[in-house]
Amino acid sequence: MIDFEPVIGLEIHVQLKTKTKIFCSCLNEFTLEPNKNICPVCLGLPGVLPVLNKKAFRLALKAALALNCKINKNIVFDRKNYFYPDLPKNYQISEYFSPLGENGYLEIILKEDQIKKIRIKRIHLEEDAGKLIHTEKFSLIDYNRAGAPLIEIVTEPDIFSPDEAFKFLQQLKLLLQYLEVSDCDMEKGFLRCDANISVRKKGEAKLGVKTEIKNMNSFKAVKSALEYEFKRQVELLKENKEIIQETRLWDEAKQKTFSMRKKEEAHDYRYFPEPDLPVFTPQDEEIESIKSEIKELPLQKLLRFKSTFNLTLGEAEFLIQDREMAEFFEETAKNTSFVKDLYNLLKGPISEYLNQNKISFKQVKISSSNILKIIELKNKGKLNNIQVKEVLFGVLKENKSPEEIMREKGIEQISDESKLLQIVEDVMKRNLQACIDYKKGKKSAIMFLVGQVMKETRGKANPNLVREILERRLKNED
Amino acid sequence: MKEIFYCSIKELRKLLESKKITPTELIEIFKNRIENLDSKIKSFVRTNFERAFKEAQTKKEGKLAYIPFAVKDNICIKGEEITCCSKILKGFISPYDATVIERLKNEGAIIIGITNMDEFAFGSSTENSCYFPTHNPFDLERVPGGSSGGSAASVSAGFVPFALGSDTGGSIRQPASFCGVIGFKPTYGRVSRYGLIAFGSSLDQIGPITRTVQDCALILSIISGKDSKDSTSVEIEVPDFEEGLEKEIKGLKIGLPKEYFVAGIQEEVKEKVLEGVKILEKLGVSVKEISLPHTKYAIPAYYIVAPSEASSNLSRFDGVQYGLRKESADLAEMYEVTRADGFGLEAKRRILLGTFCLSSGFYEAYYLKGLKTRTLIKRDFESAFKEVSLIVTPTSPTPAFKIGEKIKDPLSMYLSDVFTVPVNLAGLPAISVPCGLSKENLPIGMQIIGPAFREDLILRLAFWFERETEFYKIRPRI
Fold it and tell me: Averaged over A177-205, what is the pLDDT?
């Protein structure tokens, strides 16, 4: 049985986080009603000229620098000519002959102690097209997106499994979010990914015939599409059938790729340098100032967190997913020996709160001292886990101290044995069968009894103490 | 009193300021002249006297207060139909003002009409208009030159004191020489192209057509200067061109390129230009023969670079957003029929030529070669300007030719720009000034070329020449 491996390269389009579009002063927003953010320039009306948005250029440069690319001395834009109704000028202003950045790489972590370098072939700046809306009888065009600034990132075929592609995308996305280059929201189309895949026998250097897959709208879809396509190509090879170099579309519903209808002719984009935008050379000071804006990148942070705070890969990965959360964690962890408790609160109730409210960490107000206070209360037996969550949610929601929330809600853990004893007795009387089960050796029956006491006290009892009392009482009854 | 319609801008301003004439009366005079005579010349494709009268009744301030002018049909004016004299753009109403229009309006000037041109500025005779050909005021059977033939004819005929034209390969200077008026093509980057419907983006410049050098200097001062909407406009001080006119020219050294006085040029033209040179010598200028060795490659290089850019610039005329649309069954067919019906013969010829030159596999052999040749031509001028301050040549090898004479022979038509095209390729400023009449009483033009951004020097020499010769006093007999 011959072993095959896939060889994968990715092309990623990322929309830059600028206030205005790349060549005009229209707002770079398109959640509004159609054709609201438009002007003669982004509509490509006769006589208009593009003026480069400096911020878009700086963001692209920042991404290129963070991806370790060699920055081209001369910034030259080119026209990519093709006819399509969503493209107002019937040419796209892009960088073809000399991309902004070349020959870079991104290091990604695959598993504990396995870091892999994926080479970046090129990264360039370009404008987005509008959006077509098809109805039964005609098509409409929304130009809000026309002229939105994009960067295209192209990798070398350095990715050898669908899972690696998935991890690369996740870590690239995080990097771009850290850099504040893009929100990378795939649902909103801020990040789009096409993939090239071929297969070869393991150990062989020569690349096979590749296909290009488009139309994946999540990282998971990229992974599934690559898995499907890998299998499809391997089967063809095993049957000695030819793999056709073509573009295939991913069908999410059917979980299959399909050959895109063959175009009548091959595209000739007739690239040539854009005469409306003069060539310029970024100043060294500008490059240096952008470099200085690049702070610690996700992978560096991950490795540092792991060693500094003695975290597992999974724990560190969780923390760095959100830069604000990571910073909060670091700030707070400095002042406590209860790092694990802190992690558990962030991973547990705080994440739950964020998910429930569909917000990100930076949108909640919580201070290090408040969270440390909650940990302290818990460790002193003044709050049980249920109460911790309740207090924490209160703090997150109302931006008050834990004590205030406890006072207002009357939250207090009953750790007074004398207060609990009578309740335990009552529960035992009402649940004789459970007591018998326990005595017969079904140790888990005690959890049921603890639960009953918790219910009785509306969650206020100290569950450890209750268990202790129960164990003692059940033993004494012999 | 002198014929008011042949007064210079300066004279008209005096009449207005001394209240010898009201703004409304002034517009009335030009309206009458146009209505009486333009049926013979056909320089205007649209007039808007109603709007002009309204303007005349509002308060205007500035160097051009109440001075009427005409605009070539490829410069956008807010609220006006602008068509480049092409069927494909009929019905397009510009929603914005070109920067030059804005600047002229700010100085109080009033637009009274839009002038005829070769479709998309493709041509040297104004016969390639989708409307009608324009006639030369000096001989109605002859062409006014092109592509700004309507503008040159309207100034020559006393319909307006000045008009705007655009010059990609000679389109201001050649018609100015055919019509016995002044035409100026500024340094590339001196005047904003924002709002000029692009032909060859790296070659196009807007410039004035006037009857006197002084008026030319005045208009040029107003329309020049960096524009934030045009990235190719240059941040460089704009001198008051008018003020510098009377500065001494004694001691200036001018060059006569031997390649411009060879076979192909009509003997009469050569004689008149050399007579002009004699006059300059009399004024204290010294003359030297120089060489611009790559001149013969200018026309071939131009007919690669200009159509290549044009093919891309014109791709936006597709029937989608504005202008002509021929309804059809599907998108590809709509593009085809709209463009087949909308573009004239010469436009199609250039689109095909440009598309071919940019095609993959031909790009290096044609477009890149064209660019390299362009560099050589530029260097020719650079080294020439180390020896001389200005270069004097004929504007066109012949005076105005007959309507119909060259229209079927594109190559001979292209050659009528043989002396003007190198200037665009090198991005230099140049003027055409009248230097006498042929035996058939047709105006002959002398071209003065200067180093980049030395419009002042050109204008000064032209001013002294004009004051000495007074050729501007020769009027056509219509």
Answer: 92
pLDDT tens-digit map of B341-378? 999 999 999 999 999 999 999 999 999 999 999 999 99
Instruction: With beta carbons under 8 A apart, name residues in chain B contacting A52.
Output: 231
B147 is catalytic: yes
Q: What Å distances lie between residue B234 and B171, B184, B242, CA to CA?
A: 22, 18, 21
Q: What residues contact B350, with CB distance under 8 A and at least 6 apart?
A: B122, B306, B307, B310, B311
The active-site residue out of B42, B60, B63, B72 is B72
Tell me whether residue B296 is one of the annotated catalytic residues. Answer: no
What CATH number was assigned to the domain covering residues A417-476? 1.10.10.410
CB atoms within 10 A of CB A430: 11
- For the beta sheet containing B162-167, the strands, ordered from the edge strand earlier in sequence to the opposite edge, are B44-47, B110-115, B68-72, B162-167, B205-210, B182-185, B430-437, B443-449, B390-394, B253-257, B286-290
**Contact call for residues B170 and B421 (beta carbons, < 8 A):** yes
Domain that holds residue B9: 4-253+451-473
- Pairing of the two strands B253-257 and B286-290: parallel
3-state SS assignment for residue B163: strand
Q: Where are the domains of chain A?
A: 4-290, 296-409, 417-476
Degrees (nearest 5) of the Cα angle B4, B9, B14?
Answer: 75
Q: Residue B219 and residue B242: Cα distance in Å, rounded? A: 9
The dihedrals phi and psi of A450, each to the nearest 5 degrees, come to -60, -45
Q: Which of B10, B21, B299 is CA-nearest to residue B170?
A: B299
Q: How far apart are CA A192 and CA A179, in angstroms?
A: 18
Confidence of residue A264 (pLDDT cuts 50, 70, 90): very low
B374: closest CA of chain A, how far (Å): 14
Q: Residue B251: left if φ>0, alpha if ψ -120 to 50, beta else—which one? A: left
How many structural domains compose chain B? Answer: 1
Whichever domain contains B30, its CATH number is: 3.90.1300.10
The answer to whether residue B72 is catalytic is yes
Q: Which residues in chain B (318-377) have CB-CB distances under 8 A to chain A?
A: 318, 320-322, 331, 335, 355, 358-360, 363, 367
For residue A262, what are its two tokens?
């063959």
A398, containing H or E segment: helix A385-398
Report how far residue B245's alpha carbon sits from residue B227's, in angstroms, rounded to the nearest whole number.
25
pTM flag (> 0.95)? no
Side by side, the strands of the sheet bearing A247-251 are A70-71, A101-111, A114-127, A149-155, A4-15, A191-201, A211-216, A247-251, A256-259
Condensed to tens digits (0 to 9), the pLDDT of residues A421-460 reads 888 888 888 888 888 888 888 888 888 988 888 888 877 7
ipTM: 0.96
Rounded to whole angstroms, the Cα distance separating B349 from B337 reads: 16
One-letter amino acid identity for A64? Answer: A
